[in-house]
Each structure stands twice: as structure tokens, then as C-alpha cells.
Amino acid sequence: MAINLQKGQRVSLDGSMKLALVGLGWDVNQFETGGNYDLDASAFLLGANDKLILDSDFVFYNNLNTRNGAVVHQGDNLTGAGEGDDEVIIIDFSKVPDEIQKIAICVSIYDESKRLTFGQVSNAFVRVAKLSNEFDTVGEDQLRFDLGEEFSIETAVLVCEIYRYNGEWKFNAVGAGYSGGLEALVNKYH
After folding, report:
1. Angle at Cα 31 formed by Cα 122 and Cα 185, nearest 5°?
2. Are the C-beta atoms of 125 and 145 separated by less than 8 Å?
3. DSSP notation for 121-162
């Protein structure tokens, strides 16, 4: 059974977890927006200074793999329709380079010209599942963090961080909003 986390909580990941599925999901409030909108998951692999070491350590819809396949985005969902995960990122901890200290998992609104904000997004969550092997597409749920409805003008959210601490991987439920969409996140980590 998965552990449900609150904003700001930190927990250790299962030390035997070699492959993790990071599933992100959300709903767009149809009555406020009049249609589907494209939200995008991304991952930033960061060094000790909380910055990208290489541009290829930024995973998003136009770069689905890190330099060595340690983090792989499973593809862009253009509408967010349906139940469960809208976008999925797979982390192979055995391939994460030693100089990477943190993996920041984010969601941003693709087309800001449509004036959608996270105030019009509901039921946003991240979940981490332990995968048994490279062919496992479901895994065993380990934890879940529901973001809540606290955002209004934000167009990007740092959902969580998976980071190294004393030789083990930990999960931090962040839930911090940013204006400026994906560009604001790139500027933060570049």
C-alpha cells in the first residue's frame, strides 16, 4: 500500500528499488476552460549546486532521454484525458551518474497564450511505483502526493524532488508554483 504524503514531507525510497515509475496526473476543469489543455511533465537532473550539469540532463517532450538513459520520459499526453497517470517518467537508479544529486520532477502548461493556470487544474498528483524489471509497466505503488488546490496564477509546478542523502534516495513532496511556465523552470535550473 502506498504512503500518502503531505506537502513538505520527506521519506526514504525503498533501498531495493532499482527502477521507479513516476506517474503524474491531473484534470483540467472543463467548465472553466472549455476544453482540454496540454500539460507537460519534465525532469531536471541536478548537480550539487541545484543546476543542470549538461543540457541533456533535462528531460521533457522534446528530449525524452537523459544522456545515458537513466531517466526516460514515456511520451507527451496532449490532452490529459482519462484516468490515472497522464504522463510517466521512468528512473533507473543504477544509471544515474554519481554527480547527479537531485531529480526535480515538474509539470508545466504548454501554451500559456490560452491563459490556463494551475488554478484551473484539479486532482493533480505524483506517484512513485517500484518496477520489478524493465518490462513492468505498472509496478508496486510506494508513495503518492496529491498537490491540492492551492494554486491560482501559476503556470508551472515543481511537484517533487528525488534526491541523494547519505547514500540513499529520498523523496521530497514540494508542490511549489511558478509563473512563466517551463521557461521559468529552465531558468531556475540552468
Report:
1. 40
2. yes
3. EEEEEEEEEEESSTT-SS-EEEEEEE--S--SS-SEEEEEEE
Which cell numbers hold the place of 94?
543504477
Look up residue 114 and give its three cell numbers.
490560452
Q: Which residue has the cell 484525458?
A: 81
> For 35-58, what is each residue's pLDDT tens digit?
567 789 999 999 999 999 999 999
Q: Which three cell numbers stand for residue 141?
A: 505503488
C-alpha of 66 from chain center: 15
Helix (H, G, I), strand (E, B) or coil at 119: helix
- Whether the pLDDT of residue 32 is over 70: the answer is no
- 183/60 Cα distance (integer angstroms): 12
Q: Given a cut of 70, is residue 118 above it in pLDDT?
A: yes
What per-residue confidence (pLDDT) applies to 188? 95
